[in-house]
Amino acid sequence: GQQVMQIPQYQHVQEGEDFTTYCNSSTTLSNIQWYKQRPGGHPVFLIQLVKSGEVKKQKRLTFQFGEAKKNSSLHITATQTTDVGTYFCAGRNAGNMLTFGGGTRLMVKP
Amino acid sequence: DGGITQSPKYLFRKEGQNVTLSCEQNLNHDAMYWYRQDPGQGLRLIYYSQIVNDFQKGDIAEGYSVSREKKESFPLTVTSAQKNPTAFYLCASSYKAYGYTFGSGTRLTVV
């Protein structure tokens, strides 16, 4: 079945440093979604990417979808303590099922 | 405001007991899902339903059961056959291929 791998599993950064999490799928995706889960909270939808090579920005967050539609990344510029949480990617395949990656837990030292 | 409501927020289960977790949405979404999350782990799909009166097993359905008698409701029963039920349970809904909306979750503990 479809697998979605996310790296790294954990990342500690100093406040102000940049952060990137990577997502790779074993199959070509029709779209990819990103979610953020704050500690003790529930996942919240951030964005969806659909087109090959697509890049979208939300303030300090930049999302990319690979040309082959099998990988994606989320980059945060100049992290803040409010960025703390676990970031999940989720890939949708041709069968319309969404598969979540294992998540990257971001910790920010003030 | 539209959203998903899960109840209770915390639930304690005795050994051998069945418990039911509630999930209600007023978003008019057709599809609903149940996920299990263990500490520090990702989301694992238990069951999903794309339409009323129909549901499918996910990756870890053993020891769980669901029903979808109404569009708004998708309750999950954790049966005594589930040997390690302590976890955080998340319900979600979606409209077509758009992003999922999650409830605030139920933390189940076996005592």
SS strand fraction of chain B: over 45%
The count of strands of chain A amounts to: 11
Low-confidence spans of chain A: pLDDT under 50, at least 5 residues?
Answer: none
Largest interface: A-B, 20 and 16 residues
Based on CA atoms alone, the radius of gyration of chain B comes out at 13 Å
- Which structural class is indicated by helix and strand composition of chain A? mainly beta
Tally of individual helices of chain B: 0
First and last CA, distance of chain B: 36 Å
Instruction: Write down the secondary-structure element order of chain A.
Output: EEEEEEEEEEE
Average pLDDT rating of chain A: 95
**Measured on Cα atoms, how large is the radius of gyration of chain A?**
13 Å
Terminal Cα separation of chain A, in Å?
Answer: 41 Å
What's this, in brief?
Chain A is mostly beta strands and 110 residues long.
Would you kindly provide a written description of the structure presented here, covering whatever features stand out?
The complex is a heterodimer of chains A (110) and B (111). Chain A is built from no helices and eleven strands. Chain A has strands at 4-7, 10-14, 19-25, 31-37, 43-49, 55-58, 61-65, 71-76, 85-92, 98-100, 104-109. In chain A, the strands form two sheets. In chain A, strands 2, 4, 5, 9, 10 and 11 form a six-stranded mixed β-sheet that branches. Chain A starts with a strand and ends with a strand. The mean pLDDT of chain A is 95. Helices cover 0% and strands 50% of the residues of chain B. In chain B, strands 2, 4, 5, 6, 9, 10 and 11 form a seven-stranded mixed β-sheet that branches. Chain B is mostly beta strands. Chain B is built from no helices and eleven strands. Chain B is globular. The chains are: A mainly beta (110), B mainly beta (111). Chains A and B meet through strand 4, strand 5 and strand 9 of A and strand 10 of B.
